[in-house]
Amino acid sequence: MEVTNRYIAIKNHIDGAPKESDFELRTSALALSVDPGSGDMVVKNLYVSIDPYQVNRMKNYSSSHKSIRFSVAITPGEVIDAPGLGKVVASGNPKFEKGDLVVGIVSWAEYTLVKEESIINKLDPMGFPLSYHIGVLGFSGLTAYGGFFQVGKPKKGEKVFVSAGSGSVGHLVGQYAKLFGCYVVGCAGSKQKVTLLKEKLGFDDAFNYKEETDLKSTLKRYFPDGIDIYFDNVGAEMLEAAVANMNNFGRVALSGVISEYTDAKKRAAPDMLDVVYKRITIRGFLAADCMNVYTDFLSTTLDHLRTGKLQVLEDISLSLENIPSSFIGLFRGDNIGKKIVKIAEE
Ligand SMILES: NC(=O)c1ccc[n+]([C@@H]2O[C@H](COP(=O)([O-])OP(=O)(O)OC[C@H]3O[C@@H](n4cnc5c(N)ncnc54)[C@H](OP(=O)(O)O)[C@@H]3O)[C@@H](O)[C@H]2O)c1
Fold first, then answer.
1. What pLDDT does residue 70 have?
2. What is the C-alpha separation between 73 and 65, in angstroms, rounded?
3. Where are the beta strands (DSSP E) in the chain?
4. Nearest protein CA to atom 14 of ligand 1, as residue
5. Any idea where the Enoyl reductase (ER) domain is (predicted)?
6. What are phi and psi of 181, to 5 degrees?
7. Chain-centre distance for alpha carbon 45
8. Mean pLDDT for all residues in the chain
9. Which of the four pLDDT bands, split at 50, 70 and 90, describes residue 255?
10. Which spans in 107-227 are helix H?
């Protein structure tokens, strides 16, 4: 049997903020069968992850294109691969059977032809909603956990600052830090998000960065004794302000610089004398570097979820057509928590 597979593509490379007209819905014919022994599978996509890094893949040039295979350049008109999960509808891979739930790299499409060499695993939902497996129990969770513990190297009682605090990664970082015994302040882009951080997620404090005119003095106010760990999701002037307020031997876990993705002119220029004399470590990292803590991450996170200590924020839109607006919304701060698009019912 053959279906018309609908997918989202970019029409052109995108070098600034993405807009609806940069995207189109395209179709291609797809056989819902594969040759036995080919190693390939056809997966019906159920949930796909909407992530800021994709915008770097959409550029003409980005250093991300040559770093790891998840982040190679996207060609206009072609299918866009993305983290997600789905159900196997045909399998030529002996490790998978029709009907299996799988999680890994699928695509912004109704169906994905998953090649043998792709990153895909069987999914055991373990009693949790399917969406958790591409958020808190997936890459976002691993990024938060690995970045905080491996790169941030926290000690109990240390002072932690997290930007994009209500986002997919940020809301988990703040909670891991609190559960570990740190003092945590987050920033976010609206009053509603700030209230959520303080009242639902248990951050010690939070502020709306859009209402502040001098971020260096804002951080001085929230951290009179200095910052030990800055988990940076945004870059630019927030990174400069955090470095200015770091303590000696402070660590910056540089997860991403979303404010620079769509505006290269915003590039951060932290005071490098601060970095030298305060012996600050600024270290970029990728979730893929955190696989050595994966077992710890999973058992700790499952435990926190089962005991109700970890709150999960998800922001789920419905249907393939809403992928462009969901994606664009990341750069406007529309989402609260992990942005996901549900494509189909199980
Ligand atoms: N290193 C890795 O392996 C890895 C893995 C996943 C994610 N990341 C990075 O982590 C960061 C967060 O990703 P996420 O998936 O958790 O996304 P997210 O935080 O759920 O969504 C993006 C959020 O960023 C904030 N934002 C957007 N534009 C901004 C700007 N110009 N200045 C300040 N804040 C802005 C918005 O919240 P506000 O309302 O607060 O502005 C928005 O809701 C990104 O930089 C991403 O690339 C890295």
1. 84
2. 5
3. 2-10, 23-31, 41-49, 81-91, 101-107, 111-114, 120-122, 159-162, 183-188, 205-208, 227-232, 246-254, 281-284, 314-318, 338-342
4. 168
5. 16-341
6. 110, 25
7. 19
8. 97
9. very high
10. 139-146, 170-180, 191-199, 215-222
Per-residue pLDDT at 144: 98
The closest residue, in CA terms, to atom 43 on ligand 1 is 333
pLDDT value for 262 = 96
Please name each of the domains of the chain with its CATH number: 2-134+313-342 (3.90.180.10), 139-288 (3.40.50.720)
Helices (H), the chain: 54-57, 139-146, 170-180, 191-199, 215-222, 236-244, 258-261, 272-277, 294-306, 323-330
Describe the crossing of helices 294-306 and 139-146 by its angle, rounded to 10 degrees: 110
**Residue whose token pair is 């998978």:** 96
CA distance 163 to 242: 10
- Best CA proximity match to 225, nearest among 254, 196, 170, 182: 182
107 pLDDT higher than 90:
yes
1 vs 75 pLDDT, higher one: 75
Residues 278-306: tens digit of each pLDDT: 999 999 999 999 999 999 999 999 999 99
List Cβ neighbours of 212 (8 Å cut-off, separation of 6 or more): 218
Q: Which residues line ligand 1 (CB under 6 A)?
A: 51-53, 139-140, 143, 164, 166-170, 188-190, 193, 233-234, 255-259, 285-287, 330-331, 333, 335, 339
317 in Cβ contact with 341 (< 8 Å): yes
Sign of CA dihedral 79, 83, 85, 88: positive
* Nearest CA-CA partner of 254 in 116, 329, 246: 246
pTM reported for the whole predicted model: 0.97
| Ligand 1 midpoint to CA 34 (Å) | 38
For ligand 1, mutation pick of 233, 265, 313 (most atoms within 8 Å of CB): 233
